[in-house]
Amino acid sequence: MDNNFSIPNTQRNNIPHKQNNQPDLQNPKVRFTWRDFPYISMFLATIAQLVIWWVYPLIYSKNLEGGRWQENPVLLAYSLLCALVIFWTFRHGFEDWKNYLVLLIPALSLYFLYQRMSGQQVSLVALLPIAMVLIQVRWLNLQNILGLIMFSAIATVAFPVTIFYQQNTYLTIPFLLSLLPLFLSYLFYMSSLFITQGRSMRLTALVFGIMLLLNVLSLPWNVWTILATLIILFTWMVLINLNLKRRYRFGVYAVLQMITVMLIFLQQK
Question: What's the sign of the alpha-carbon dihedral 130, 131, 136, 140?
Fold first, then answer.
């Protein structure tokens, strides 16, 4: 009996061979196209940040006697750039090298701001892109609760304080203290972007959510207070506990943050 087994030529010809010029269908390459870019999410998140930064200082200032409102389209354009950069960074994660290139855009526009504003004001609004750059640096270890607190604090004061000063030509301690709900909202809604581990993420969001909820419950009880409370509870019980996909987080949380903050701030008299 012959031990050397061989395949007949008729069967050998029927065996499919992978051609070198044929693509591997089992491992297709996913190519990014501009059609895949989340334009709607970017639009909603950007508008949400602009509303948060611009509307409240105007609401608070309506009953104050201050200087004449100084129109500053350059500041508006700069805030738009910062909102877009924040969306890009949070969507792509903190370890994407392209974030540094994107962060150069608002940095280069600071020159035009300096032509219209004082050095102190420019320095204040420049803190936001600087903070985003620092968060990218891995050895600084800011992709955690420390980075969350830093980002929340800077995002809370950078534009609202600058806009308030632009309109009134002065600052007040009550206005600065009234920004506490905005600070707490950043801590709560952005927590899952900095703390991504399941148990730690839920615990961190729970702590900051309780702090924000207590602040909301201190307001006069009405339908808007109840609605803000329901949004906070829904965000923690459903979205955070279900671990919303990262590419959707900032867009969804930014819109919910805007609604919550406006429900709080629109009750300011």
Answer: positive
**DSSP string computed for 46-72:** HHHHHHHHHHHHHHHHTTS--SPP---
- Contact 250/40 with Cβ under 8 angstroms? no
pTM of the full structure: 0.83
The answer to whether the CB of 201 falls within 8 A of the CB of 195 is yes
| Rg, C-alpha atoms of the chain | 25
pLDDT in tens, 102-145: 888 888 888 888 888 888 899 999 999 999 989 988 888 898 99
Report the alpha-carbon angle 228-232-234, nearest 5: 115
Q: Where are the domains of the chain?
A: 39-56+70-267
Type of residue numbered 41: S
In sequence order, the 6+-apart residues with CB closer than 8 A to the CB of 127 are 154, 158
Angstrom distance (rounded) from CA 266 to CA 269: 8
